[in-house]
Amino acid sequence: MTVFEALILGVVQGATEFLPVSSSGHLVVVPELFGIPTPPLAFDVLVHLATLVAVVAYFYRDVSRLVLCVVAPRHLSRQELKHWRRLLVWLIVGSIPAALAGFLLNDFFEGLFASTLAVGLFLIVTSALLCGADLALVRLERRGRVRSLDSLRGADALLIGCFQALAIAPGLSRSGSTIAAGAFLGFDRPTAAHFSFLLSIPAILGAFVFSLKDIGGAFASGSALAYLVGAGAAAISGFLAIFFLLRYLKRHRLRLFAVYTLVVGLFVVGISLV
Question: H-type helices in 59-188, by residue range?
Fold first, then answer.
């Protein structure tokens, strides 16, 4: 992999990790369309780690409070301590399904990455999820029944976590699935996206730790510069994607992304059959 190819894939990864369009699906499709060698798992995990840097940097206040409630609770008021400890528990609960799925079904999910047809079909599923969530949330907004993050319960976190686990499949957007799950549960779009981004932190970190051996081998093979360029590009574009999406969802619905994933999904299915 050249430095330029790594730069392109890094930008694609960062831009699509937090937008509900499936980063893993794009990392399968883009190399095939533009003749870029399929990136190894090590590169995929490393650019995901770069997006972890982006989300931690963007939500620095939230992350610092979550850490403080464990290591230095005296620095928080009683009310703050209750809020952040509760949120931390729900993040742990929501992370369990993806951890189990990644550990037990790793070979199955890796096999899907070799199928362009599967990527296209899962992109279409992403579109359907976004459409359904959008319609459900519109009805809830009309009834004035939209929920805030403080109303999140353990069952809500577990269900959102199950959607995140399914999104290990390429083409099924992690952010799109978890935002859709939050919308189905009655949370407004920015709130669902906020929890989705926080929930991505343990998921990305866990995938990185699980694949450390692959990353070490990649650096040893002399591809370190290309990998670092790709990671830097992913971190910057990821930060910008978060910034854009949270502001976009305050005034707009998910249908733009639903149309995009449908069109791309149909295109990918078409070229895979041809």
Answer: 60-71, 78-104, 106-112, 116-143, 154-166, 174-184
Query: Distances from the Cα of 48 to the Cαs of 140, 147, 273, in angstroms?
Result: 34, 30, 30
Residue 102 lies in domain: 3-273
Query: 29-67: per-residue pLDDT in tens?
Result: 888 778 887 777 677 778 888 999 999 999 999 999 999
**For residue 1, what is the enclosing H or E element?**
none
Decide: helix, strand or coil at residue 187. Answer: strand
Q: Answer yes or no: are the C-beta atoms of 21 and 170 closer than 8 Å.
A: no
**How many domains would you assign to the chain?**
1
SS3 assignment, position 2: coil
Residue pair 52/14 in contact by the 8 Å Cβ criterion: no
The secondary structure of residue 149, as a DSSP letter, is: G
Average pLDDT over residues 178-190: 92
Hey, what are 267's tokens? Answer: 């295109």
pTM above 0.85, yes or no: yes
User: DSSP assignment of 7-20, as one string?
Assistant: HHHHHHHHHHHHTT
| Furthest-apart CA atoms within the chain: distance in Å | 63
Q: DSSP assignment, residue 147?
A: B
Tokens for 39? 């990136």
Q: How far is the C-alpha of 21 from the C-alpha of 19, rounded, in Å?
A: 6
On the CB side of 9, CA atoms within 13 Å amount to 35
